[in-house]
Protein backbone atom coordinates (compact mmCIF):
# COMPACT_ATOMS: atom_id res chain seq x y z
CA UNK A 1 0.00 0.00 0.00
CA UNK A 2 1.59 3.27 -1.11
CA UNK A 3 1.50 6.28 1.21
CA UNK A 4 1.61 9.18 -1.25
CA UNK A 5 0.35 12.15 0.77
CA UNK A 6 0.73 13.51 4.29
CA UNK A 7 -1.13 16.37 5.97
CA UNK A 8 -1.61 17.64 9.49
CA UNK A 9 -2.70 20.34 11.90
CA UNK A 10 -1.03 19.83 15.29
CA UNK A 11 0.21 21.55 18.45
CA UNK A 12 3.74 21.09 17.03
CA UNK A 13 3.10 22.71 13.68
CA UNK A 14 0.91 22.55 10.62
CA UNK A 15 3.38 21.10 8.14
CA UNK A 16 5.61 18.02 8.10
CA UNK A 17 8.77 20.15 8.11
CA UNK A 18 7.63 22.16 11.12
CA UNK A 19 6.51 19.05 12.97
CA UNK A 20 9.80 17.24 12.43
CA UNK A 21 11.83 20.31 13.42
CA UNK A 22 9.95 20.53 16.72
CA UNK A 23 10.18 16.79 17.36
CA UNK A 24 13.94 16.88 16.90
CA UNK A 25 14.25 19.98 19.08
CA UNK A 26 12.08 18.42 21.78
CA UNK A 27 9.69 21.35 21.82
CA UNK A 28 6.35 21.00 23.58
CA UNK A 29 2.94 22.25 22.50
CA UNK A 30 1.55 21.68 26.00
CA UNK A 31 0.60 24.79 27.98
CA UNK A 32 -1.96 26.36 30.27
CA UNK A 33 -5.14 27.00 28.31
CA UNK A 34 -7.08 30.24 28.27
CA UNK A 35 -10.56 28.70 28.38
CA UNK A 36 -13.50 30.57 29.90
CA UNK A 37 -14.56 28.82 33.09
CA UNK A 38 -16.15 29.35 36.46
CA UNK A 39 -14.36 31.65 38.86
CA UNK A 40 -12.06 29.91 41.30
CA UNK A 41 -11.19 26.92 39.05
CA UNK A 42 -7.56 26.61 38.01
CA UNK A 43 -6.62 26.90 34.34
CA UNK A 44 -6.38 23.49 32.68
CA UNK A 45 -3.39 22.27 30.69
CA UNK A 46 -3.67 21.09 27.10
CA UNK A 47 -1.93 21.04 23.74
CA UNK A 48 -3.72 23.37 21.35
CA UNK A 49 -2.93 23.84 17.68
CA UNK A 50 -1.97 27.22 16.25
CA UNK A 51 -5.02 27.22 14.01
CA UNK A 52 -7.64 29.78 13.07
CA UNK A 53 -10.55 28.51 11.04
CA UNK A 54 -11.36 31.96 9.69
CA UNK A 55 -8.02 31.95 7.89
CA UNK A 56 -9.28 29.03 5.78
CA UNK A 57 -13.07 29.31 5.64
CA UNK A 58 -15.36 32.24 4.92
CA UNK A 59 -18.82 32.94 6.28
CA UNK A 60 -21.39 31.49 6.08
CA UNK A 61 -19.65 28.13 5.66
CA UNK A 62 -17.54 28.40 8.78
CA UNK A 63 -20.71 28.58 10.89
CA UNK A 64 -21.52 25.04 9.72
CA UNK A 65 -18.10 23.65 10.62
CA UNK A 66 -17.08 22.63 14.10
CA UNK A 67 -13.39 23.16 14.85
CA UNK A 68 -12.81 19.43 14.40
CA UNK A 69 -14.10 19.56 10.80
CA UNK A 70 -12.13 22.71 10.06
CA UNK A 71 -8.86 21.06 11.07
CA UNK A 72 -9.75 17.83 9.26
CA UNK A 73 -10.47 19.68 6.01
CA UNK A 74 -7.18 21.58 6.16
CA UNK A 75 -5.12 18.46 6.96
CA UNK A 76 -6.87 16.45 4.24
CA UNK A 77 -6.22 19.25 1.73
CA UNK A 78 -2.52 19.09 2.59
CA UNK A 79 -2.47 15.33 1.98
CA UNK A 80 -4.27 15.77 -1.36
CA UNK A 81 -1.82 18.48 -2.46
CA UNK A 82 1.20 16.48 -1.27
CA UNK A 83 0.02 13.45 -3.25
CA UNK A 84 -0.87 15.63 -6.27
CA UNK A 85 -4.23 13.86 -6.47
CA UNK A 86 -6.96 14.91 -8.88
CA UNK A 87 -10.54 13.81 -8.41
CA UNK A 88 -12.57 13.79 -11.61
CA UNK A 89 -15.87 12.32 -12.70
CA UNK A 90 -14.08 9.35 -14.23
CA UNK A 91 -12.45 8.17 -11.00
CA UNK A 92 -14.36 9.59 -8.04
CA UNK A 93 -16.27 6.36 -7.41
CA UNK A 94 -12.90 4.58 -7.09
CA UNK A 95 -11.90 6.89 -4.22
CA UNK A 96 -13.03 7.00 -0.61
CA UNK A 97 -12.73 8.76 2.74
CA UNK A 98 -12.02 7.19 6.13
CA UNK A 99 -11.92 9.33 9.29
CA UNK A 100 -11.47 8.53 12.96
CA UNK A 101 -12.81 10.72 15.76
CA UNK A 102 -13.57 9.88 19.34
CA UNK A 103 -15.74 12.86 20.22
CA UNK A 104 -16.81 14.48 16.95
CA UNK A 105 -17.95 18.08 17.21
CA UNK A 106 -17.35 18.48 20.93
CA UNK A 107 -17.07 22.27 20.72
CA UNK A 108 -20.51 22.60 19.11
CA UNK A 109 -22.05 20.23 21.64
CA UNK A 110 -20.45 22.07 24.54
CA UNK A 111 -21.61 25.42 23.15
CA UNK A 112 -25.15 24.12 22.75
CA UNK A 113 -25.30 23.01 26.37
CA UNK A 114 -23.97 26.39 27.48
CA UNK A 115 -26.67 28.21 25.52
CA UNK A 116 -29.42 26.03 26.99
CA UNK A 117 -28.28 25.69 30.59
CA UNK A 118 -26.16 28.77 31.29
CA UNK A 119 -27.78 31.38 29.08
CA UNK A 120 -31.25 29.92 29.69
CA UNK A 121 -32.13 30.16 26.01
CA UNK A 122 -34.65 27.79 24.43
CA UNK A 123 -32.89 27.75 21.06
CA UNK A 124 -29.41 26.63 19.99
CA UNK A 125 -27.68 27.50 16.75
CA UNK A 126 -29.45 25.97 13.72
CA UNK A 127 -26.36 24.07 12.55
CA UNK A 128 -25.62 22.48 15.94
CA UNK A 129 -26.54 18.93 14.91
CA UNK A 130 -24.74 19.15 11.55
CA UNK A 131 -21.62 20.57 13.18
CA UNK A 132 -21.50 18.15 16.10
CA UNK A 133 -22.26 14.82 14.38
CA UNK A 134 -19.24 12.53 14.41
CA UNK A 135 -19.28 11.89 10.66
CA UNK A 136 -19.32 15.58 9.74
CA UNK A 137 -15.59 15.78 8.96
CA UNK A 138 -15.65 12.77 6.63
CA UNK A 139 -18.81 14.04 4.95
CA UNK A 140 -17.35 17.48 4.26
CA UNK A 141 -14.16 16.00 2.83
CA UNK A 142 -16.21 13.84 0.48
CA UNK A 143 -18.32 16.81 -0.57
CA UNK A 144 -15.33 19.08 -1.18
CA UNK A 145 -13.65 16.61 -3.54
CA UNK A 146 -16.75 15.02 -5.04
CA UNK A 147 -15.66 11.59 -3.78
CA UNK A 148 -18.52 9.14 -4.29
CA UNK A 149 -16.86 5.95 -3.05
CA UNK A 150 -17.06 4.75 0.57
CA UNK A 151 -17.32 7.48 3.19
CA UNK A 152 -16.55 6.00 6.60
CA UNK A 153 -16.24 7.25 10.17
CA UNK A 154 -14.71 5.15 12.93
CA UNK A 155 -15.12 5.95 16.61
CA UNK A 156 -13.07 3.59 18.75
CA UNK A 157 -11.87 6.18 21.25
CA UNK A 158 -8.09 6.63 21.25
CA UNK A 159 -7.44 4.16 18.41
CA UNK A 160 -9.96 5.75 16.01
CA UNK A 161 -7.40 7.38 13.72
CA UNK A 162 -5.28 4.24 13.42
CA UNK A 163 -8.38 2.14 12.73
CA UNK A 164 -9.46 4.62 10.04
CA UNK A 165 -6.09 4.27 8.30
CA UNK A 166 -5.96 0.49 8.64
CA UNK A 167 -9.51 -0.06 7.44
CA UNK A 168 -8.90 2.32 4.51
CA UNK A 169 -6.00 0.13 3.47
CA UNK A 170 -8.25 -2.92 3.62
CA UNK A 171 -10.75 -1.19 1.30
CA UNK A 172 -7.99 -0.76 -1.25
CA UNK A 173 -6.70 -4.30 -0.77
CA UNK A 174 -10.19 -5.67 -1.36
CA UNK A 175 -10.30 -3.96 -4.75
CA UNK A 176 -13.21 -1.66 -3.86
CA UNK A 177 -11.21 1.52 -4.48
CA UNK A 178 -7.84 2.76 -5.72
CA UNK A 179 -7.41 5.76 -3.41
CA UNK A 180 -8.42 6.53 0.19
CA UNK A 181 -8.02 9.73 2.16
CA UNK A 182 -7.64 8.46 5.70
CA UNK A 183 -6.91 10.03 9.06
CA UNK A 184 -8.26 11.36 12.31
CA UNK A 185 -9.42 14.62 13.83
CA UNK A 186 -10.23 15.76 17.34
CA UNK A 187 -11.00 19.07 19.08
CA UNK A 188 -11.66 18.23 22.75
CA UNK A 189 -10.26 21.34 24.43
CA UNK A 190 -13.55 22.66 25.80
CA UNK A 191 -14.50 23.38 29.38
CA UNK A 192 -16.94 20.49 29.61
CA UNK A 193 -14.70 17.88 28.00
CA UNK A 194 -11.66 18.82 30.06
CA UNK A 195 -13.64 18.64 33.30
CA UNK A 196 -15.10 15.28 32.30
CA UNK A 197 -11.64 13.84 31.73
CA UNK A 198 -10.40 15.31 34.99
CA UNK A 199 -13.26 13.53 36.78
CA UNK A 200 -11.77 10.19 35.69
CA UNK A 201 -8.46 11.12 37.33
CA UNK A 202 -6.52 10.42 34.16
CA UNK A 203 -5.38 14.00 33.48
CA UNK A 204 -1.85 15.01 34.48
CA UNK A 205 -1.25 17.43 37.29
CA UNK A 206 0.28 20.63 35.87
CA UNK A 207 4.00 20.72 36.49
CA UNK A 208 4.42 23.60 38.97
CA UNK A 209 7.66 24.80 37.41
CA UNK A 210 6.92 24.20 33.73
CA UNK A 211 3.42 23.31 32.46
CA UNK A 212 4.93 22.16 29.12
CA UNK A 213 6.63 19.30 31.01
CA UNK A 214 3.40 17.97 32.52
CA UNK A 215 3.18 14.88 30.26
CA UNK A 216 5.90 12.37 31.19
CA UNK A 217 5.33 8.99 29.50
CA UNK A 218 7.13 6.02 31.05
CA UNK A 219 8.64 8.19 33.81
CA UNK A 220 8.46 7.21 37.45
CA UNK A 221 6.87 10.55 38.31
CA UNK A 222 4.22 10.51 35.56
CA UNK A 223 0.79 11.67 36.68
CA UNK A 224 -1.43 11.25 33.64
CA UNK A 225 -2.20 12.35 30.11
CA UNK A 226 -2.58 15.81 28.61
CA UNK A 227 -5.33 16.33 26.04
CA UNK A 228 -4.42 17.76 22.65
CA UNK A 229 -6.22 18.74 19.48
CA UNK A 230 -5.51 18.47 15.78
CA UNK A 231 -5.91 16.39 12.64
CA UNK A 232 -3.67 14.19 10.51
CA UNK A 233 -4.32 12.55 7.14
CA UNK A 234 -2.62 10.28 4.65
CA UNK A 235 -3.37 9.58 1.04
CA UNK A 236 -3.25 5.82 0.45
CA UNK A 237 -3.10 4.31 -3.03
CA UNK A 238 -3.14 0.91 -4.60
CA UNK A 239 0.43 0.21 -5.66
CA UNK A 240 0.01 0.14 -9.44
CA UNK A 241 -2.26 3.20 -9.30
CA UNK A 242 0.44 5.20 -7.53
CA UNK A 243 3.34 4.04 -9.67
CA UNK A 244 1.30 4.32 -12.84
CA UNK A 245 0.79 8.02 -12.36
CA UNK A 246 4.37 8.59 -11.18
CA UNK A 247 3.41 9.54 -7.63
CA UNK A 248 6.05 10.27 -5.03
CA UNK A 249 5.82 7.52 -2.42
CA UNK A 250 6.67 8.35 1.19
CA UNK A 251 6.48 4.80 2.49
CA UNK A 252 4.60 1.53 2.25
CA UNK A 253 1.85 0.69 4.71
CA UNK A 254 2.43 -3.04 5.01
CA UNK A 255 0.98 -4.08 8.38
CA UNK A 256 -2.27 -3.60 10.28
CA UNK A 257 -3.31 -5.47 13.41
CA UNK A 258 -6.62 -5.11 15.24
CA UNK A 259 -7.68 -6.79 18.49
CA UNK A 260 -10.13 -6.11 21.30
CA UNK A 261 -9.65 -6.46 25.05
CA UNK A 262 -12.71 -7.76 26.84
CA UNK A 263 -11.44 -7.39 30.39
CA UNK A 264 -12.55 -3.89 31.34
CA UNK A 265 -13.81 -0.69 29.68
CA UNK A 266 -10.70 1.30 30.70
CA UNK A 267 -8.13 -1.29 31.82
CA UNK A 268 -5.74 -2.46 29.06
CA UNK A 269 -4.35 -5.99 28.84
CA UNK A 270 -0.93 -7.24 27.81
CA UNK A 271 -2.53 -10.00 25.75
CA UNK A 272 -4.67 -7.60 23.73
CA UNK A 273 -1.87 -5.17 22.97
CA UNK A 274 0.63 -7.92 22.19
CA UNK A 275 -1.95 -9.61 19.96
CA UNK A 276 -2.39 -6.45 17.89
CA UNK A 277 1.37 -6.08 17.44
CA UNK A 278 1.71 -9.71 16.39
CA UNK A 279 -1.21 -9.37 13.98
CA UNK A 280 0.42 -6.31 12.39
CA UNK A 281 3.72 -8.16 11.99
CA UNK A 282 1.92 -11.12 10.40
CA UNK A 283 0.04 -8.79 8.07
CA UNK A 284 3.32 -7.19 7.00
CA UNK A 285 5.05 -10.55 6.62
CA UNK A 286 7.77 -9.42 9.03
CA UNK A 287 9.63 -11.02 11.90
CA UNK A 288 9.83 -8.89 15.04
CA UNK A 289 13.54 -8.45 14.34
CA UNK A 290 12.73 -6.33 11.28
CA UNK A 291 11.16 -3.46 13.27
CA UNK A 292 13.60 -0.62 13.91
CA UNK A 293 11.44 1.78 15.95
CA UNK A 294 8.15 1.70 17.85
CA UNK A 295 6.07 4.85 18.22
CA UNK A 296 4.34 3.88 21.44
CA UNK A 297 0.83 4.71 22.56
CA UNK A 298 2.54 5.99 25.73
CA UNK A 299 -0.18 8.06 27.38
CA UNK A 300 1.75 8.80 30.61
CA UNK A 301 -0.91 7.11 32.75
CA UNK A 302 0.41 4.74 35.39
CA UNK A 303 -1.40 1.69 34.08
CA UNK A 304 -1.10 2.09 30.32
CA UNK A 305 2.65 2.69 30.18
CA UNK A 306 3.44 -0.35 32.32
CA UNK A 307 1.10 -2.60 30.33
CA UNK A 308 2.45 -1.42 26.97
CA UNK A 309 6.02 -1.99 28.17
CA UNK A 310 5.13 -5.57 29.16
CA UNK A 311 3.35 -6.14 25.83
CA UNK A 312 6.37 -4.95 23.84
CA UNK A 313 8.58 -7.32 25.83
CA UNK A 314 6.19 -10.20 25.14
CA UNK A 315 6.28 -9.58 21.38
CA UNK A 316 9.94 -8.64 20.90
CA UNK A 317 11.52 -10.79 23.60
CA UNK A 318 15.12 -9.98 24.50
CA UNK A 319 15.34 -7.62 21.52
CA UNK A 320 12.85 -5.29 23.22
CA UNK A 321 15.66 -3.85 25.33
CA UNK A 322 17.63 -2.74 22.26
CA UNK A 323 14.60 -1.40 20.36
CA UNK A 324 14.01 2.38 20.37
CA UNK A 325 10.52 3.09 21.75
CA UNK A 326 9.21 6.61 22.24
CA UNK A 327 6.02 8.50 23.00
CA UNK A 328 5.62 11.75 21.11
CA UNK A 329 2.56 12.51 23.25
CA UNK A 330 5.10 14.01 25.64
CA UNK A 331 5.22 16.93 23.17
CA UNK A 332 1.91 17.08 21.29
CA UNK A 333 -0.39 15.66 23.95
CA UNK A 334 -3.03 12.98 23.49
CA UNK A 335 -5.21 13.77 20.47
CA UNK A 336 -7.65 10.98 21.38
CA UNK A 337 -9.34 9.89 18.12
CA UNK A 338 -6.71 11.69 16.03
CA UNK A 339 -3.72 10.29 17.94
CA UNK A 340 -3.29 7.11 15.90
CA UNK A 341 -3.36 8.99 12.60
CA UNK A 342 -0.92 11.66 13.78
CA UNK A 343 1.47 9.12 15.24
CA UNK A 344 1.36 7.08 12.03
CA UNK A 345 2.26 10.23 10.09
CA UNK A 346 5.11 10.81 12.56
CA UNK A 347 6.26 7.21 12.07
CA UNK A 348 6.28 7.67 8.27
CA UNK A 349 8.15 10.98 8.56
CA UNK A 350 10.65 9.33 10.93
CA UNK A 351 11.17 6.53 8.43
CA UNK A 352 11.78 8.92 5.56
CA UNK A 353 14.08 11.26 7.43
CA UNK A 354 15.99 8.84 9.64
CA UNK A 355 14.68 10.39 12.86
CA UNK A 356 13.80 8.67 16.11
CA UNK A 357 11.78 11.22 18.12
CA UNK A 358 12.41 11.44 21.86
CA UNK A 359 10.24 10.81 24.87
CA UNK A 360 10.57 14.16 26.61
CA UNK A 361 10.63 14.87 30.36
CA UNK A 362 11.83 11.37 31.17
CA UNK A 363 14.19 11.94 34.07
CA UNK A 364 12.86 9.80 36.91
CA UNK A 365 12.88 6.09 36.03
CA UNK A 366 10.16 3.53 36.73
CA UNK A 367 11.24 -0.09 37.36
CA UNK A 368 8.14 -1.28 35.46
CA UNK A 369 9.19 0.74 32.40
CA UNK A 370 12.73 -0.34 31.59
CA UNK A 371 13.08 -0.13 27.80
CA UNK A 372 14.98 2.34 25.61
CA UNK A 373 12.47 5.20 25.47
CA UNK A 374 14.87 7.60 23.69
CA UNK A 375 14.88 9.95 26.69
CA UNK A 376 14.87 13.69 26.10
CA UNK A 377 16.92 13.81 22.89
CA UNK A 378 16.03 12.75 19.35
CA UNK A 379 18.31 10.51 17.34
CA UNK A 380 19.02 11.62 13.80
CA UNK A 381 20.77 10.01 10.87
CA UNK A 382 19.35 6.62 11.84
CA UNK A 383 18.81 3.92 9.23
CA UNK A 384 15.18 2.86 9.57
CA UNK A 385 13.57 0.20 7.39
CA UNK A 386 10.37 -0.60 9.29
CA UNK A 387 8.50 1.27 12.01
CA UNK A 388 5.53 0.33 14.18
CA UNK A 389 2.86 2.68 15.52
CA UNK A 390 0.73 1.56 18.50
CA UNK A 391 -2.75 2.86 19.35
CA UNK A 392 -4.76 1.48 22.25
CA UNK A 393 -8.12 2.70 23.50
CA UNK A 394 -10.79 2.88 26.17
CA UNK A 395 -13.29 0.21 25.19
CA UNK A 396 -10.40 -2.12 24.40
CA UNK A 397 -9.80 -1.59 20.67
CA UNK A 398 -6.09 -2.07 19.91
CA UNK A 399 -4.78 -0.99 16.51
CA UNK A 400 -1.20 -1.28 15.27
CA UNK A 401 0.18 -0.02 11.95
CA UNK A 402 3.52 -0.84 10.30
CA UNK A 403 5.22 1.24 7.62
CA UNK A 404 8.27 0.21 5.63
CA UNK A 405 10.71 2.30 3.66
CA UNK A 406 9.80 2.65 0.01
CA UNK A 407 11.75 0.29 -2.24
CA UNK A 408 11.26 0.97 -5.94
CA UNK A 409 12.52 -2.55 -6.73
CA UNK A 410 10.15 -4.35 -4.38
List keywords for this structure.
410 residues; alpha/beta; 14 strands; globular
Spans of 5+ residues with little confidence (pLDDT < 50)?
Answer: none
Strand coverage percent: 15-25%
Strand order of the largest sheet: 5-4-6-7-1-8-14-13-9-10
Tally of separate helices: 12
Structural class: alpha/beta
Q: Largest beta sheet, briefly? A: 10 strands, mixed
Q: Could you tell me how far the N terminus lies from the C terminus, measured between alpha carbons in angstroms?
A: 12 Å
User: What average pLDDT do the residues reach?
Assistant: 95
* Strand and helix order: EHEEHEHHHEHEHEHEHEHEHHEEEE
From the alpha carbons, calculate the radius of gyration and give it in angstroms: 20 Å
* Percent in helix: 25-40%
- Count of strand segments: 14
Quaternary assembly: single chain
Q: Which term fits the overall shape?
A: globular
Topology readout:
Elements: E1 2-9, H1 16-25, E2 30-32, E3 45-47, H2 67-83, E4 95-100, H3 106-118, H4 128-132, H5 136-145, E5 151-154, H6 160-173, E6 179-186, H7 191-199, E7 230-237, H8 239-244, E8 251-260, H9 270-284, E9 293-295, H10 302-316, E10 325-326, H11 329-332, H12 339-353, E11 355-356, E12 379-380, E13 386-392, E14 397-404
Parallel strand pairs: 4-5, 4-6, 9-10, 9-13
Antiparallel strand pairs: 1-7, 1-8, 2-3, 6-7, 8-14, 11-12, 13-14
Structural description of this entry:
The protein is an alpha/beta fold and 410 residues long. It is 32% helix and 18% strand. The protein has twelve helices and 14 strands. Strands 5-4-6-7-1-8-14-13-9-10 form a ten-stranded mixed β-sheet, sandwiched between helices. A two-stranded antiparallel sheet has the order 2-3. It has a two-stranded antiparallel ribbon with strand order 11-12. The protein starts with a strand and ends in a 6-residue tail after the last strand.
Amino acid sequence: MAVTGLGLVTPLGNSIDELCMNLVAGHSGIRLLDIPQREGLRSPIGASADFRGDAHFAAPRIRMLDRVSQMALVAAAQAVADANLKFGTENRDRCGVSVGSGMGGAESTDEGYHIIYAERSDRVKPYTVLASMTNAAASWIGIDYGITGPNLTYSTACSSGAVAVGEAARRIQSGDVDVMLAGGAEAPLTFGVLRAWEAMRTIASPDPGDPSASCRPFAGNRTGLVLGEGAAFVALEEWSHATGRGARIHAELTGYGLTTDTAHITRPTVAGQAGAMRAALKSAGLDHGAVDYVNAHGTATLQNDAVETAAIKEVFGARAFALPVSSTKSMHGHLLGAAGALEFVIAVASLERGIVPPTMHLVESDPACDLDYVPNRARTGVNLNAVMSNSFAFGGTNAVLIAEAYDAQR
